[in-house]
Sequence to fold (490 residues):
Amino acid sequence: MRLRAKTLLPVAVLAASCLVFLYAYWFPRSLLNLEEQELRATERHLESVAAALVPLLLAHQLDAVYENLDALLAQNQEWVAITLVDPDGKSLYPLREGAPTPARRLWTITRPVQVRGHDLGRLVLDIDLSRLTAAAEHRHRELATVLIIVFCGCFFGIAFVLERVVRRPVGILAHAAERVAEGDFGAPLIRTGDDEVGSLVASFARMRSSILDYQTRQRESAEAIKRLSQELERRVAERTLQLEVANKELEAFAYSTSHDLRAPLRHVIGFCELLKKHAAEPDEQTQHYLAAISGAALRMDRLIEDLLSFSRMGRRELTGVEVDLARVVHDVRHELEPECQGRVIQWHVDGLPKVHADSTMLHIALVNLVSNALKFTRPRASAEIVIGAERGEAETVVFVRDNGVGFDPRYVHKLFGVFQRLHAIEEFEGTGIGLANVRRIIARHGGRTWAEGRLGEGATFYFSLPNREADAIGTAGEPLQANLRTSASR
Fold:
């Protein structure tokens, strides 16, 4: 619907509603009110006539009664007939006018003629209000004609004003808006005045100018961002290359250094064993020294072995396949059976799902977590170890819970660091590399690691693996390293 029709339609509906109200309600109501007023006035007049006839009837002056009634009929054109009836129903004054025409609508009014409760008769009046109502209807038609003329004049006047003041400026504004939507900001705008429409046109002109300025600034900003992005990508590529070279050199250095350190340690261990065998019955203190040297060398050798394993974790290429966690946990328990000999251990392995990961690396991570649970529950008469998983929308969380010695939650941030230990080596053996290996393995899968626990109340270690293969670990059989680098670049 066009704007002109939308603005003029309420005016037309209002005018039509007024006319319908006049014809359907007000005109008929006014006619009824006029008839009621006339009938009430006639009733009062007839009561006065009845009162005036009392003395004449008491004096039996019927001629005077007839003269008065004839005069009343002559004076009142609406009165069609008057009948005077005595108490016995005998007509004293018969009808004086011929039969009414069929178009007439007669009203009958009856009033008693009494004196001090004594009934002298009654007056019956037939009245015709058609002439009165016809005159009222004529006036109503004249009023309706005048109103129709006024409504038409107002309608066309409003239409003319709306055309000049609203529709034409709004049409120009709509055309300019279409041009702006098409990218043309040069369409002319004419301000029609200081009214609301003129203010709207001026506001649109300011908005168009602001949009043009904003587009110019946005284009300049986009070009600057593009240049900065290209420069940043170049620097990131250079820095990434430098970091990759440095990491490779560092890993190669750590690997070669560890190998170089192990050879002297093996010599020390070997010579200690030779001294124990060939020394001529060494005393107890000498044996203690040799045992201390041999034990320290063995611990150093194990530490170097763990460092080599940690270094290999960073160099080994991951291959993502579908892994059955329940099968991996079964293999881990079988591998750690020697550590369970002679102990009471309650295992609780809940339903474990299948995940997408490198099976070998996932096995190593679970070996570290489960062996930790076995180690730190050693002081318990009955150890309890729970292995479970919870699958969410984005990731699967795997946990290993035990009722061991636990740890102080204030130092939880140290758990997954290299060489970080929360217990003395005299209490529990280890090098502090196992949990660091777990974090490194899970991080390379795109997951997270964390832990909860309290001293004397056990501990729970968690790690997560992403469910969406494309986000972290690629498809089955595909190397993960390239995929991880792609994700990082995004």
The first helix runs from residue 3 to 58. DSSP finds eleven helices and twelve strands in the chain. The chain has three domains: 3-153, 213-315, 318-489.
